[in-house]
Every structure is written in C-alpha cells, then in structure tokens.
Write a structure and sequence with these properties.
single chain; about 700 residues; alpha+beta; 13-stranded antiparallel β-sheet; 8-stranded antiparallel β-sheet; 29 strands; globular
C-alpha cells in the first residue's frame, strides 16, 4: 500500500484511467535524453516539443546516461498516469514529472498545479520498476526507502515507454552513486596512508588516539555507505530476475548480488588498505566465532562415553549475576583504538584476538543455559489443552527467554567455547508453577530468584547439557529435557560474525526443535541475529531479524520480528509476533512490546495479557561445585581466568588464558599428527544438524 505521499491524495481527478499525455520538455541540465527508434534528433525533438504543447509518441524519447562530456539542457518527461490511492478512492489521474537530473519522480493533482508543491515524490536511485498484471497496463515503482507507486498507463505502448524512462533514470543515478563511492574510497585510502606514514615517535605519531579514532570512524562511515549501496544494487539485481517480486529481506545479514568495490571486498575480507572500525569490541550475546579464545582441543580418550552427571551433587548456583561496566581508563582506550586501527574492512572477525579486560566471566555455553531461566513457562507449554494453546504458550516462552541471557547493562563478550567443552546444569520447578491457563499471567516475583522445588516428589526437574562440537565452523549444541512432562529441546547454533560499519552483526545459524511427546508435536524454531552497537563509545546489544516457529502436525506457525532501532528516533528492543493457523489462514494471537521489557499479547477471542520480563520469577541453575566438575566443563576449564578477572588482575588473567591456549595447541598438533578425528561426547551429527546421543524421544 502507499505511504504518506499516497495518503495525501484526496478528491479531485477521475477514477478512470485516461490516456497518458507523455510530454518531453526542456528541464535544464540533466542526463542526456537520446532519441531512439524513430531517427528523430535531439535538436528537432527539442524544437518541436520545447513549447510544451505537443505530445511525444510513446517510445520516441528514451532517457539514457550521457556518453558525452559537455553539459547541455536536456529533456524531462511529463504526462498523465493513473495512480492507485487506496481501496476507497481507487485509481485517480495524476500529473507526473520525471526529473532526470535530480533522479526524482514527482506527481501533482493536475498539470495546472505542477508549479506548486508536489503531492508526492520518489527518489529513483536504486528504485525498482516492474510490470504488473494486477491491472491493465500497470507498472509499479518501488523506491529504495520502501515507498511504492502503483501506476497505470493508457495502453501497452505508453506503459513500456514510462518503464524505459524510469529504469534508465534509476540506472544512471545508481551508476553515479557507485562512481562517487569509488572516489570516497580513494580519499579514505589516502587518509589512511597519510596517517600510517607518520613517524613512530614525536609530537604526532601514527598511534595518536585522535588519529586512530579518525581512521576507525572514516572506515566505519565508508562501510555504512558501501552497505547501503550494495543493498540498492541487490534490489536492482533481484528485480532483473524473471521470478522476482520485491519484498522485505528476511536475512538482514545476508548481502547477495552485485556489490560495490568496497562491499564486495568487505564480504571477502580482502580490503587490506582500509582499517576497520571493528566491531568486535564487547558484547554479551555476541560471541566471536573462534580464534579470539583458545583453540583447545583435548586429546580424545579411547572408547570414551558420556559421563554420568549426578543430580544429587548439584547445588543452587550462587555465582554473581552482574558484570561490572567497562572503565574508560586511558590505557584500555588506547588498546581498543589500537586494535581497531589494525583491523581491515571486512576482516573475518574469527581471526581477531581481543584484550582480556572486555571478556565476560562465563562461557557461551553457559549463556545458552541462562536463556532457560524461566523453565516454568517452558513446561507450561505441555499443559495447553489444545494445539492453539500450546503454540501460543511456546511463543510466550520464546519471547521472554532472551532477557535473562544478558548480564549487566553493557555488551561484554563471553568466552568462546573450546571444542569438547561442556556445560551441565538443571532447574527444579514446583508443580504448582506450571499453569495451563494462557490468560493468567505468570505470578510476578519482582525479578527475584525462585527457590525451586525441595525434591523430585514436589517438582519437575529440567536437565541441560551443552557441548562445543565443532571448531571450524564454531558450532554449539545444547539439549534439555523434562522426563515428567515428556518434553525436550535440541538445538545447534553456528555463530557467524560480520563487520557492519559502526556495529557488528552475528548470525545465529541453525535451528532448534521442541518436542512434546505426549502430543506427538514438534516445533521447529530459528534464532534472531544479534548486533553490538556503538562500538566506539559505550557498546550495547540489540536483537534483529525475522524468526519462525512451525509445527507441521498441527498446522500452526508463528512469525517473530525483532526490530532494530531506526537510525533516527524510534524505540529499541522492539519485537512483534503473529501466530497463525495455516489451514484456515486464521491469526489466533498477536504480540508486541520489548523483548527485555513489557510484552502484550492479544488473542482472537479479544482477551489480552501483559508480561513484564523484568518481574518474571528467575529460577537459579543447579550446578555441581568446581571440585566435582570434569576438566573440560566450562567453569572448571576457565576457573583461573575467571578468578583473576574478578580480582581485576587483567595481566594475570591474560597469562592464564595464554597458558591454556598454548597447552591445548600442543594437544591439537599431536592429534593432527596422528590424524585422529574429533568425536563429540554428547552429540551426533545427522545431515546438516546435530542431535543428542540419547534423546528422550528415543528412550520412550
């Protein structure tokens, strides 16, 4: 549907499509308008049409980029087209003016009002102009900003004439933007070269903080411009495909199709002359992918089998929950800026070794466990009386799961799991906390922890195990189950990071499956992407992208959209969701709010429910003490690094991290020499996915 410009259309104008009066007039200096197909010269056409009274036959004038070097007064295109306004007013005749030089398509109520303010305007740079069979002689113009004009010409010849003009104008301005981008790249390279040519000592050096910041911000700005250009080029490329229908991109991190010089090299990580304003500074939900943490691979034990984790050894977790904020000490600032200056635009972030002081005191595997901090909501899915209630309960749990996975207000980075690293824990949930009523909001606990059940007879136990099963690519798996409720979840995630200018994006590639054995239902779900923002100042994290939840047996599905903050204004951490019964195409539930704040659910019977994620009861993990953990369990493995981070002794923490890395590199080389493949302990690869070795659905 049309946006503000179309909404401005009120009355006036016929509701029928009359013949478009396409007129070429002198419009000042612009891209050349070469005459095609009829042998009419530009001079004779200008003479014949310069008065503005004569009409040009469709196809007699075609706009194209100027091949000549001089500037001259060129032709603009004017004429009447029918424009779709809305369902109430339908199609209305409007007077359109295509300004080739500005690359703008404007429209007015009629020709007499064309010297007044236009009713609407579209920038054609990066625009898509496509044909449509929705109505006779119809064309659609999709602007790069998302605005859309539905237009109709008087006949097929007139339609093709306008399509040719609009596409030529869009192509010309896209090429001009690409040329400008190349010029900016050259200037940025000169800036970097000038800074790096400075002496290593003296009053002004290449490591001056202001110059390092200048390098970083200029590279980030260049990257943002390149990304915008590549997205425009992507749209144009896709529009040229026969089966393409323009729509919203679902993969917000994916860059496909032709790229500008900078963005293509950014993707391949080969733009060596451009330093990056790295993103990979600090984030809690954004793990780096491999190399900045130990590449340890313990030597496999012959005929090793999964260890039995005794639940009676587990105790309620009393680890500190909050992470201290990053300081602004000058030495830390210098380290970060120096790191930024060494990165290259598009560099693979898995190759970046980060300073120890930005690390969070937990492994990524434990962070996945922290997403399960509301196990009562997960178990409540099994209590739903109907498939509709169960899918809605799962969506409610899904939307509330991400809040507790964060620690502290700032974005810090968890330890990258080592191949073979594992994490075990469990939760105990009182039976009276698992409610089947969907409209009864969970009882608030002021964000405080719940004590859990005193014993298995009084509550349900949810067990969790996670393992790092692959190093290249970095893949984490986790599995949890509740035997009493006959529920289990199996998930595998590959974290893939990408530098995006002033931020870093991390795609969570993979999927999870929730199985309700009592009902024979499987819910397949995906995960959102995560972003570290404001990487040069105070970094923070937001989620973004479209995820899906599908149950093939019941026909229910859900679409969840994590909205990223607009560049200007707008709220942060917004999320919207829609649950649909596909066989009947019925929407049974909608939700909106903030994934780390208040969420409002509206059901198809008119009922509503509000969940405040900040007041939900938090169930502490039950975990074995360090002395009873194996050498490759997360907390035991990282215990010395964590201890020194708590003490604030960054040098000692860095040394412990270095020793750990070196020890494991030796073991890795030994295994490579023996050509011994790595075999995970708890998970088995099946096709492109991974499954737990003894899942609940196989045991029952």
């Amino acid at each position: 549907m049309e946006r503000a410009a179309q909404g401005a259309d009120g009355g006036g104008g016929s509701n029928s499509s009359s013949r478009s009066s396409s007129r070429a007039t002198s419009a000042g200096s612009s891209p050349s308008c070469s005459l095609a197909g009829r042998g009419v010269s530009s001079r004779s056409a200008a003479a014949g049409l310069g008065g503005g009274g004569s009409r040009s036959s469709p196809g007699s004038v075609a706009a194209s980029p100027s091949g000549g070097g001089g500037r001259r007064r060129e032709l603009a295109l004017e004429g009447v087209l029918s424009k779709y306004t809305n369902l109430l007013q339908g199609w209305q005749n409007r007077y359109f003016v295509l300004d080739f030089e500005a690359g703008i398509l404007q429209y007015f109520v009629n020709e007499q009002s064309k010297h007044q303010k236009p009713r609407g305007a579209l920038s054609l740079s990066g625009a898509i102009v496509s044909l449509s069979d929705e109505a006779p002689h119809m064309l659609v113009v999709y602007s790069a900003n998302g605005e859309m004009y539905k237009l109709r010409a008087a006949d097929a010849k007139e339609k093709q004439f306008w399509v040719t003009q609009l596409r030529a104008c869009a192509k010309y301005h896209m090429e001009m933007n690409a040329k400008m981008m190349n010029q900016v790249e050259g200037q940025q390279k000169n800036l970097v070269h000038a800074i790096e040519s400075l002496p290593g000592s003296g009053p002004l050096t290449a490591l001056d903080q202001d110059l390092l910041l200048l390098k970083a911000t200029s590279a980030a700005t260049l990257s943002c411009l390149g990304e915008c250009l590549s997205l425009l080029q992507q749209s144009v490329h896709q529009a040229s495909q026969p089966s393409h229908k323009p729509g919203a991109s679902e993969n917000i991190l994916g860059w496909h199709g032709p790229k500008s010089h900078s963005t293509e090299q950014m993707k391949n990580g080969t733009l060596g002359s451009l330093p990056s304003a790295s993103a990979n500074i600090t984030w809690a939900i954004l793990p780096n992918s491999a190399e900045d943490e130990p590449t340890l691979r313990p030597e496999p034990e012959p005929n090793s089998v999964p260890e039995l984790v005794l639940s009676e050894d587990e105790k309620s977790d009393n680890e500190d929950k909050e992470e201290p904020e990053l300081g602004v000490m000058e030495d830390q600032r210098s380290i970060i800026l120096h790191l930024i200056s060494q990165l290259k635009l598009g560099m693979d972030l898995t190759k970046v070794v980060l300073p120890t002081f930005i690390l969070e005191k937990r492994s990524l595997l434990e962070m996945y466990a922290d997403f399960m901090a509301h196990p009562d909501l997960l178990l409540a899915v099994t209590a739903g009386a109907t498939p509709e209630e169960r899918v809605i309960c799962f969506v409610e749990y899904y939307l509330t799961a991400f809040h507790e996975g964060r620690k502290g207000a700032l974005a810090k980075k968890p330890y990258n799991p080592i191949i073979g690293e594992t994490f075990h824990c469990s939760w105990e949930v009182p039976k009276d906390r698992v409610r089947p009523k969907r409209t009864a909001a969970p009882s608030p606990a002021g964000g405080h922890e719940c004590s859990g059940a005193d014993g298995s007879s009084k509550g349900y136990k949810l067990r969790f195990v996670a393992e790092q099963v692959s190093h290249h690519p970095p893949i984490s798996c986790f599995y949890c189950e509740c035997k009493e409720r006959r529920l289990c979840v199996s998930t595998h995630v590959w974290t893939k990071s990408k530098f995006m200018g002033m931020s870093v994006g991390v795609s969570m590639i993979g999927e999870g499956v929730l199985r309700l054995l009592e009902h024979g239902e499987e819910y397949v779900f995906t995960l959102p992407s995560a972003y570290a923002r404001s990487i040069l100042t105070i970094p923070w994290v937001e989620l973004g992208g479209k995820v899906s939840i599908n149950c093939a047996k019941t026909g229910y599905s859900a679409t969840v959209i994590f909205h990223t903050k607009p560049f200007y204004g707008g709220k942060v951490h917004r999320v919207t969701a829609e649950v649909k019964h596909n066989p009947t195409n019925t929407i049974v539930c909608k939700a909106h709010g903030e994934w780390n704040g208040t969420l409002e659910f509206t059901y198809n019977n008119g009922e509503t429910k509000v969940i405040d994620t900040t007041t939900l009861p938090v169930y502490p993990k039950r975990i074995r003490p360090l002395e009873k953990q194996g050498p490759m369990e997360s907390r035991n493995l990282w215990r010395e690094v964590t201890r020194y981070l708590r003490l604030g002794d960054i040098d000692a923490a860095t040394e412990q991290k270095r020793r750990l890395e070196e020890k494991q590199r030796v073991e890795e080389r030994k295994r490579e020499n023996l050509r011994t493949p790595w075999k995970p302990k708890y998970f088995i690869q099946e096709g492109d996915g991974w499954v737990y070795f003894n899942p609940l659905w196989k045991a029952h």
